[in-house]
Design a protein that fits this description.
- The strands form eight sheets. Strands 24, 26, 27, 28, 29, 30 and 32 form a seven-stranded antiparallel β-sheet that branches. Strands 3, 4, 5, 6, 7 and 8 form a six-stranded antiparallel β-sheet that branches. A five-stranded mixed β-sheet has the order 10-16-15-12-13, with no helix packed on it.
- It has four domains: about 80 residues, Immunoglobulin-like; about 90 residues, Immunoglobulin-like (Sandwich); about 110 residues, Immunoglobulins (Immunoglobulin-like); about 140 residues, Jelly Rolls.
- The relative contact order is 0.09.
- It is built from one helix and 32 strands.
- The chain is rod-shaped, with a radius of gyration of 44 Å.
- Helices cover about 0% and strands about 50% of the residues.
- It is mainly β and about 500 residues long.
- The N and C termini lie far apart (about 150 Å).
- Bound molecules: calcium ion (3 copies).
Length: about 500
């Protein structure tokens, strides 16, 4: 293009310039809809020259607009906030720098269904039945029909839910203290907030070792012996023995768990938590019988019994021995009570005795209650046990009331080796007043009254005959301060001597 000018005087000037005139709009090709989800989709297309990127869309007609003004030839526009399972109408629009606009034909796409809730699973300690630690390991899995992040939340028992957190397939979890069954629940939700049903797994927390009682050796021959004992819950059977009281290197019975494991603590062991407890290899029972064979004749063997419950809590009771070669005949049984007024146990319930006590251990998952009536039922395996361990600053007592006043000169108690009194007063009631007929406060006083048979500790009090209707035993200290006082039987009679 050229411009020529002339003024009134006839002077002429000339100027030239050139411009490019683009009269054609961009050409749109390759319109595609990708990544169609329940609430979003991506629209892409190409243009033959740099142009801006706009998508007009709506569920009835293209009414909303999304895009960007930047001029490109490859266009990508994300549509979000869409409704699931809905048909959308859309067209794409691109304008070049001179404002020439191109538009595609109107097309449709349909968003995905919102889908189903996640499904999943949970297990505690790989499905173990028992644990002795508060710290456990959860194994969690979850699946969803949409490939978005899954969240989870946790709850124990009737507690409250945790906050939602990202799915973690291995999760260190702390169950609440207190022995018993613990159930952990998990729920999941997908990225659309659709919540799963509740899944759960349970494990039984057991932090208390078995209680061993009634340890006896029997059938001792020149080269064999049988050791029997009881536990108050199903437990393993193992006898460790040797010819020295300090080195019992031989054993018979359970192989996996020995007395060396008895010192491992239970419950809260903090950073040292051993998540998975060892499993006993042998079967679990409450009545134990282990035979020792291949023994040397006329030899004293020392032994201890070891029992582990299913959770791996180990109890050891030691201090026993026997001598092979038939040199240890069993002690003669005590004479049976005779009729009349001599050698009749007036404390016995079947003779009208009634027992009351300061307290007694309630029933637990480990065993039945230990009411004072157990101490006068004539059964040397049932026992009264106070509810508090070690007695402490208070005292524990058991009182037996006879059916009527009786002459007595002898009182005997029987306890388990871990549960016998270290300080005890024995009183009888005469004319409404309590009168002491025996007591011990120190081990030297105790020694004269005490005898032992297997794991049973007995105390015998002999005194000048009195006529009484009640007997009271007051205990101030227990042999094992972490145990409660226990009496298998209380006997009160007139020996006639
Ligand atoms: Ca889903
Ligand atoms: Ca236990
Ligand atoms: Ca009893």
């Amino acid at each position: 293009m050229t411009v020529r000018v002339r003024d009134a005087a006839g002077n002429e000037a000339q100027a030239s310039a050139s411009i490019t005139v683009d009269a054609t709009p961009p050409s749109i090709s390759g319109v595609e809809v990708k990544s169609i989800g329940p609430d979003s989709a991506t629209v892409t297309w190409r243009t033959n020259k740099p142009s801006d990127s706009w998508v007009l869309f709506g569920s009835y007609s293209p009414s909303e607009t999304r895009g960007q003004a930047e001029r490109v030839t490859t266009h990508t526009v994300l549509l979000y906030g869409l409704n699931p399972n809905t048909t959308y109408y859309f067209k794409v629009r691109s304008a070049d720098e001179t404002g020439h606009v191109a538009e595609s034909a109107t097309q449709t796409f349909r968003t995905a269904q919102r889908g189903n809730p996640p499904t999943g699973s949970i297990s505690i300690n790989n499905g173990a039945t028992y644990t002795r630690y508060y710290d456990v390991q959860l194994t969690i899995s979850a699946r969803d029909d949409y490939r978005g992040p899954i969240e989870m939340r946790l709850r124990e028992g009737t507690g409250s839910w945790s906050g939602w957190m990202a799915l973690q397939t291995t999760f260190a979890y702390r169950i609440s203290p207190g022995d018993g069954k613990k159930t952990v629940y998990v729920e999941f939700r997908d990225m659309y907030g659709i919540q799963s049903s509740t899944y759960s797994s349970s494990i039984t927390l057991d932090t208390r070792p078995p209680r061993i009682s009634n340890v006896k050796s029997a059938n001792v021959t020149a080269n064999s012996a049988t050791i029997t004992w009881n536990t108050d819950e199903p437990a393993t059977s193992r006898v460790e023995y040797g010819t020295s009281g300090t080195s019992m290197r031989e054993f018979v019975g359970e192989r996996s768990i020995s007395s060396a494991d008895a010192s491992t603590p239970s419950g809260d062991v903090g950073a040292k938590a051993i998540i998975i407890t060892p499993t006993p290899s042998g079967s679990l029972r409450t009545s134990h019988s282990v035979s020792l064979t291949g023994l040397r004749e006329k030899t004293t063997y020392y032994y201890q019994v070891v029992s582990s419950d299913a959770a791996g809590n180990v109890a050891v009771m030691s201090g026993f021995s026997f001598t092979t070669g038939g040199t240890t005949p069993p002690p003669p049984p005590p004479p049976p009570p005779t009729s009349g007024t001599v050698n009749v146990n007036w404390a016995l319930a079947s003779n009208g005795g009634k027992a009351t006590a300061s307290s007694y251990a309630p029933a637990t998952s480990e065993g039945p209650a230990s009411p004072p009536s157990n101490a006068i039922d004539g059964n040397a395996r049932t026992y009264w046990e106070a509810s508090k361990a070690g007695v402490g600053s208070s005292i524990e007592w058991i009182m037996v009331e006879f059916a009527k006043s009786q002459p007595i000169n002898y009182i005997k108690t029987m306890s388990d080796v871990g549960h016998y009194p270290m300080e005890m007063t024995v009183e009888v009631e005469q004319d409404g007043r309590w009168v002491a007929v025996g007591s011990f406060k120190s081990t030297s006083e105790q020694k004269n009254l005490m005898s032992r048979s297997g794991s049973t500790i007995s105390f015998e009090f002999k005194f000048a005959q009195v006529v009484a209707s009640k007997v009271r035993l007051t205990i101030r200290r227990v042999s094992n301060p972490t145990h409660a006082i226990q009496f298998y039987e209380v006997i009160a009679m007139n020996t006639g001597k």
